[in-house]
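Sample pair:
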Amino acid sequence: MLTGKAEKRPRGELARVLVVDDEADIRELLDLTLARMGVSADLAANLFEARRLLDQRRYQLCLTDMRLPDGEGLEVVRLIVERYGETPVAVITAFGSTQNAVAALKAGAFDYLAKPVALEQLRSLIKSALNLPRRRAGGGEDESVGSVTQLIGHSPAIEQVRVTIDKLARSQAPVYISGESGTGKELAARLIHDQSTRRAAPFVPVNCGAIPESLMESEFFGYRKGAFTGAENDRAGFFQAAQGGTLFLDEIADLPLPMQVKLLRAIQEKKVRRVGSTVEEAIDVRIISATHRSLRDRVDAGNFRQDLYYRVNVIELRMPPLRERDEDVEALVQAILVRLCGTQPPRLDPQAMAALKAYSFPGNVRELENILERATALCSNDAVLAEDLQLAPPMVANDSVGRDGETLDDYLNRIEKQTILDALNKTSFNRTAAARLLGVSFRSLRYRIERLGIEE
């Protein structure tokens, strides 16, 4: 028998939420909270009832416990993602069950709450979910919602980035943006924020590598007056500044291990404590992180906590290097020239454009911007010639310095792969012996073999 309200309300009168929980007191708490927010709720005590209700009507949000008498909350998440994609679903997990929360977010959950449920966090989650842009029947966004237009180009690689950003904007899950320097990781983070329900709140970018280690805790979490010499007034940290919005942690791989522990707790508990305070403050912040390094390699080397890695890398967005989207070079050139020179930029000589299209751009879009800024300062007669670009000569094609168009990462990966293959061949592909020969742990060698795609 279904628990809760079975009566049909006129369509559009109230937002409607599906609550799935086997504990009657939790259902009552959620129902009461929703009613006070002007939201109607249907209540289900198990997976079977939830499926029946989902078949009967559409919901603006589903709140589900992770443990149900006849199944798992993950089944509700997967069902809604597959069949009712326009409905965000949030999970309620037992205190400290961060593994369940990460699994739910990876499966497509909008967000999660930990028991005991904090009413302030619950209200914030409900408001965010109900403010999500609704999708039209054809699968597109409602016309009142803007689309991602700041990514220049129409290559398959950049179109895939646009599609992923649209999806990520409809979630609260932590996002890890990978990619080489200059590929536009911060731009992608801003676009995710601007397309999300958090767009009216601050977007706070932080360069983790630019903060002295001694100041990190106070910069991230703030401090109380008198907490240390020079603390003359209370001060908010990055988390408080980003309240309700997005905190972008650029170059997160540069965080020292002690700060990684504190960051992990803040993300898991959604609370921070200012330096000099005995009271924790609830925070409502979405974490987006990025680095040009390989976080997996940092974990393997013991320089980045594995538990933090799994918390920040719930969903990964890879920003492609410019050499993988060379068909976008001409559009990028035109856009950059207009930004640098206004509506009447200098024209690019055909040979100059051909030179740019043939260039490998180890510094990606940022390097292209620098090249054009220098060229516009050097050119004459309102025309940029090939010599004005001053492009670096291609790398010599030999093993000592890398191959033509090969980046440093590609070159190092190639050398590493060959070294590992040599060791494996010497040991008849005995990985334990090869690891000993290379002076690395077996775990480290196994990870490198998988990353480099080495097969016996």
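The chain has four domains: 3-130, 156-318, 322-389, 408-452.
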